[in-house]
TrEMBL record:
NCBIfam families: DapE-ArgE (TIGR01910), PRK06837.1 (NF005306). It comes from the Bacteria. InterPro entries: ArgE/DapE (IPR010182), Bact_exopeptidase_dim_dom (IPR036264), Peptidase_M20 (IPR002933), Peptidase_M20_dimer (IPR011650), Peptidase_M20A (IPR050072), YodQ-like (IPR033687). SUPFAM superfamilies: Bacterial exopeptidase dimerisation domain (SSF55031), Zn-dependent exopeptidases (SSF53187). This is ArgE/DapE family deacylase. Keywords: Cobalt, Hydrolase, Metal-binding, Zinc. The keyword Hydrolase applies. The keyword Hydrolase applies. Its cofactor is Zn(2+); Co(2+). Belongs to the peptidase M20A family. Residues 204-316 form the Peptidase M20 dimerisation domain.
Length: 425
């Protein structure tokens, strides 16, 4: 691809950026929390049809997925769950095929009064767009779509098959991405524009979600000593799991990538529910937890370690010793992933990066996870993850930096053109 073609594509990104931001605002405005992603999938389907892509919009059947590598259990109403894929088919085949994927699900906004502006009424100020999902990762998804638009607006069209995929469940199980593979979608490479601060994810953690279900013995609080407080018993288990976190971080020092980080394995007690009455010793407590695992670590083996940790802590507790808690697997059962065998797509992206940013992309050792793992681990498809800068993901006042978003869109457009090839329209 010559310099003139590159420049025409870059100019097209600039010319379309205001429209890109308008579409991104509309996308962020949809409160697509878990189980409510349908309107976002409707919007993506419409955008793809308007552009002439073949659209496959289907209901996800858990029975089709439950035996696949990386499946995580679903606990909520899944009756409306859908994946949407738009396929571009070239007139002539001259390049390599590509999957472009983004997830439209977002995490809950939390107490609305703690946001400076409403989370689902996105605003632009100081060169940033604020809103839940603006950074993670709706701006990246729309950016990928407008990267394709820029190639067309510059007077070219790709010479390889492209699947544009909008998935759900990235924040809790990953079964949306898994469903596209079960459906049969494949390509020579995958590109996911998660917000990485302009770095390329080299290695990422996996995640295990589990729930502690703790029972107590209720009494009137006036006689608390004769009862057993389930909430305090749950806290005893949390303290034991914090010690397991320390052990796993010691183990991480042997990993060639994660040894560069001080604390790559993070345990989080994220949701707690328990008790029925302030003056009653609580009879129950449920705690939803998350802990990371590193690439190459067995999910099954580390589930056993979690179980053993909880069992040992229970034996050292007056009530739990005879009333052991339950451990339930409540979402992610996801392996870590290291980008390997990706020299060709990385070289193609390196050319795009150099033109837009200068130099070479910096590696990111990522203490969160992305859907890239399914493509690389399940099917050997090299899966690149690179995206814009932003902040407060999963927090209040989430934002994406707009200049970085424009650069990311340019890099994606040039990468698509380099990897897939282009011809005059």
């Amino acid at each position: 691809m010559n310099a003139e073609t590159q420049q025409r594509i870059l100019d097209a990104v600039d010319n379309g950026f205001e429209a890109q931001l308008a579409t991104t605002r509309d996308f962020v405005a949809i409160p697509s929390t878990r189980g409510a992603e349908g309107p976002c999938q409707d919007m993506i389907g419409d955008l793809l049809r308007e552009r002439g892509y073949e659209v496959d919009d289907w209901h996800i059947d858990i029975e089709d997925l439950k035996d696949l590598r990386g499946f995580g259990p679903i606990e909520h109403d899944f009756s409306k769950a859908r994946s949407v894929v738009g396929t571009y088919r070239p007139r002539t085949n001259g390049g390599k095929s590509l999957i472009l994927q983004g997830h439209c699900d977002v995490v809950p906004a939390g107490p609305l009064e703690l946001w400076d502006t409403p989370p689902f009424a996105p605003v632009i100020k100081d060169g940033k767009m604020f809103g839940r999902g603006a950074c993670d990762m709706k701006s990246g998804t729309i950016g990928a779509l407008y990267a394709l638009d820029a190639i067309k607006a510059a007077g070219f069209r790709p010479t390889a098959r492209i699947h544009f995929q909008s998935v759900i469940e990235e924040e809790s199980t990953g079964v949306g991405a898994l469903s596209t593979l079960q459906r049969g979608y494949r390509a020579d490479a995958c590109f996911i524009p998660e917000p990485t601060g302009g770095k390329m994810v080299r290695s990422q953690v996996g995640v295990i979600w589990f729930r502690l279900r703790v029972k107590g013995h209720p009494t009137h609080v006036a006689f608390a000593g004769s009862g057993a407080n389930a909430i305090m018993a749950a806290y005893h288990l949390i303290q034991a799991l914090q010690k397991l976190e320390i052990e796993w971080n010691e183990r991480a020092k042997a990993d060639r990538h994660f040894k560069t980080l001080d604390h790559p394995v993070n345990f989080n007690a994220g949701v707690i529910k328990g008790g029925d009455w302030a003056s009653s010793v609580p009879a129950w407590c449920d705690v939803d937890c998350r802990i990371a695992v590193l690439p190459g670590w067995s999910i099954a083996d580390h589930q056993k370690e979690i179980m053993a940790c909880v069992a040992a802590a229970s034996r050292n507790h007056r009530f739990l010793a005879n009333n052991p808690p339950q451990v339930e697997w409540s979402g992610f059962l996801s392996e870590g992933y290291e980008l390997t065998n990706a020299a060709e797509p990385e070289a193609a992206f390196g050319k795009a990066f150099k033109r837009v940013y200068g130099g070479t992309p910096e590696d990111l050792v990522f203490t969160a996870l992305t859907d890239t793992r399914f493509y690389g681990l399940n099917h050997g498809i090299p899966s690149l993850c690179f995206g814009a800068s932003g902040g407060e993901m999963h927090g209040f006042n989430e934002f994406v930096d707009l200049e970085s978003l424009k650069k990311t869109t340019k890099a994606m457009a040039l990468f698509i053109a380099e990897w897939c090839g282009v011809e005059k329209a």
